[in-house]
Amino acid sequence: MPSPTPVPPRDRADTPWRSEGAPPAPPVKKKMPGGWRGLVLTALVVYLLTNLVLSFFNEGDEPTISYTEFSKQVTNGNVSKIYSKGDAIQGQLKAKAPVPDGDGDYTKFVTQRPAFADDQLWANLTGKGVVVTASPVVEHRSFLANLLISLAPMLLLVGLWVLIARRMSGGGMGGPGGLGRKQPPKPVELEGGKRTTFEDVAGIDEVEGELSEVVDFLKNPERYHRMGARMPGGVLLAGPPGTGKTLLARAVAGEAGVPFFSASASEFIEMIVGVGASRVRELFTEARKVAPAIIFIDEIDTIGRARGGGSGMGGHDEREQTLNQILTEMDGFSGSEGVVVLAATNRADVLDPALTRPGRFDRTVVVSPPDRGGREAILRIHTRDIPLAEEVSLAQVARTTPGMTGAELANLANEAALLAVKREQKAVTQTDLSDALEKVQLGAERPLVMPEEERRRTAYHEGGHALLGMLQPGADPVRKITIVPRGRALGVTLSTPDADRYAYTEEYLRGRIIGALGGMAAEQIVYDVITTGAENDLEQVTNLARGMVGRWGMSERVGRLTAIPADAQSAYGLSAAPATLDAVDAEMRRIVDECYETACRLLRENRDKLDALVEALLANETLEEVAAYEAAGITRLAR
């Protein structure tokens, strides 16, 4: 029974849990990875390298030519101006000249006048009209400019270093690819500030009663301490998928008004051994800081499976270390800490005994699919925001949906709303809900055009199922018959009980087998053929017969014992002696053969009813409950 309240998002990508209602965490002082000493040393190296590169480029800006080359250019009248400081001469040519013994041309140059030179340089310069300047011809950059240019790469490096440091300091080495601790999670603000409470939960009142003790303990721990009572450190929510285990955990936290930390068990596991244990330690540490609080671990069987002998590598070893850390953390709880661990699983039978012993998960709460009243209440919750037509009866929908969980009912309401939008209606009608139920249970309609002969054979197949369901005492009423292809089936017969069943008699199970064999029996009686259309029927028959003989003691020959495990059909043949398994096989065949003979006999005796039902099916393609019983000429008995 999921709630429309959004699940709090994960605080960061590297945080394996979500928090709800937790107070703001104190700011954490970030440290520079490697320290400032490493940063200064790196900056110094970059500075020296930059200066070396810049000096190399500066030296190549104006070539140093020989004094002979300079004299030659003066004689040729190609020098426009010079600047002299001591024996050093800088100058500029009027026209480009090739660099002697080098590549390219030059216009500005540098040379050195020898001390022994006596060549009347001043007279030559004056005669050629060379201007002797008072300022350098080649302007070099100042020390400040060189300093700024050389510091630019260093500043870029420092900025990059700080950026990386900030990204890494959120988790140290505990981020993606790391191993250390992470920054405490920030509180998550829910939309509208509304948290999930027991008002958003329906259909499992008995479970709410058990969890209300946890809520009361979190609200008033002093009452329990005065009596010397210790609240269970852990509560295990076990049940089929979709029954609302996660919603219940959030409702407990919302009802008690305490912080709620939730995570999936698989999110703790990493390839590197030790990361999961580190994350578990941090999660429990954060919960203790804001106690009283609730920690919720979903799908705990991922890491909580019974530990086997022998050591493993990789993921196996990491899973065991994570489990060991959870055991250690829960064992270290005291009654005053106020941290309650809730966990959910649909495989409570595979959990490690050390996890479910008293002192850790003290209490196991079974969350079962809701009954009829619970289903109606769940439907009302999930249709609060859906406009319903006046003729809609949620009680009728609840009566025809036995065994459906809260998640499936939420999906049913959503599918009905989608159909209403598709049909451009202003409200959801009873027809929309009925069609949505068919789509969920039977599959979507297929636009398949069948030959008339095959269409008639399909009608006899479905008519055989339906007629035997109408004739069998105590059988589930026939709700709908259709020969419209849906999913992988060419036709469907839907039968559901008027009330929820919790125990089944041998007579009822035999009636189920007879009804499942009705399609094959009708095809054999009418056409004397056996088709592949009975594949799913035979699977149901096999499972029912195997359970009757091997699990439920409904065979005198096998006796009152369990020869086949209930949850591992792959182990069939390995849990009992070969003679016992041979007896199971023989008894299964006997029961199925007897039921098939009964099905054929009943169809032969009521052939007129079968033909009438088939003709009505061929004319209408789909028959509802009332129309189906009228077509077969059978009075619907009160069950």
Short description:
With 639 residues, the chain is of the alpha/beta class. Strands 1-7-8-9-6-10 form a six-stranded mixed sheet, with helices on both faces. Strands 4-3-2-5 form a four-stranded mixed sheet, with helices on one face. Helices cover 46% and strands 11% of the residues.
Provide keyphrases for this structure.
639 residues; alpha/beta; six-stranded mixed β-sheet; four-stranded mixed β-sheet; 13 strands; disordered N terminus
> What general outline do the C-alpha atoms trace?
elongated
Low-confidence stretches: 1-8, 170-192, 309-315, 568-573
Task: Count the E strands.
Answer: 13
First and last CA, distance = 29 Å
Major sheet size, sense and barrel closure: 6 strands, mixed
Number of helices: 22
